Structures are given as C-alpha cells and as structure tokens.
Amino acid sequence: MESRTNIVNATKFVGGSVLALGIIMFLTGFVVSGFDFLMSIGIGTVTGAVFIFLIGLFFAATEEMLEKSYKGVPVTPLPHKKN
Q1: Is 40 a domain residue?
Q2: 73 in any annotated domain
Q3: From its phi and psi, is residue 72 left (phi > 0), alpha (psi between -120 and 50) or beta?
Q4: Fewest CB atoms within 10 A around its CB: which of 32, 35, 49, 52?
Q5: Based on the structure, what is the number of domains in the chain?
Q6: How far is CA 82 from CA 44, 76, 79, in A?
Q7: What domain range includes position 55?
Q8: Which pLDDT tens digit goes with each residue over 26-61?
Q9: What is the DSSP string of 7-46?
Q10: What is the model's pLDDT at position 78?
C-alpha cells in the first residue's frame, strides 16, 4: 500500500503544479492583450496536467491489480487418466 500512495502523491503534486502553471498562463494571456500566445500554451499545459494525473492513477491501479492477481485459491490439475 505504501508504494501506491507514493505514486498517487507524486502524481498529485506534479499534476497540481503543472495545472496551476497552466491556469496562470491562460489567465495572463486572457487578461493581458499583448500575450495572446499564452492562452494556447496555457490550454495545452492544463490538458497535459490532466493527462499526467490520469496516467499516474492508471499506474497505481495497475500496480494494485498486479499485486492482487497473485492472491486466491491455488488451482491443482486433475489427475491424468490412463487408458
């Protein structure tokens, strides 16, 4: 459980930082008339932050599923019939 929380916390920190930077760039480009190019860069940065967060959650969920796949009832094969 420790490693999944580390992955989720790291993803949350990086995604939140990139999201805040993208929002600041978008609002700067929207409010200030001379910086129109910052609006498009801000939108791309916000989209990138969402993808970073989703990929991190996917990694955590994949790790959990792989960890749980080894649990369960062991299957023993049926004895072979001799003809």
Answers
A1: yes
A2: no
A3: left
A4: 32
A5: 1
A6: 67, 18, 9
A7: 4-66
A8: 999 989 878 888 999 999 999 999 999 999 999 888
A9: HHHHHHHHHHHHHHHHHHHHHHHHHSTT-THHHHHHHHHH
A10: 80
Q: How far apart are CA 61 and CA 69, in angstroms?
A: 12
User: For position 81, what pLDDT does the model report?
Assistant: 80
Share of the chain above pLDDT 90, in %: 46
In a domain, 74, yes or no: no
Check: CB of residue 3 under 8 Å from CB of residue 16: no
- State the pLDDT at residue 21: 96
State yes or no: pLDDT of 19 exceeds 80.
Answer: yes
CA atoms of 53 and 35, how far apart (whole Å): 28
Number of neighbours of residue 53 by Cβ within 10 angstroms: 18
User: For residue 36, is it within any domain?
Assistant: yes
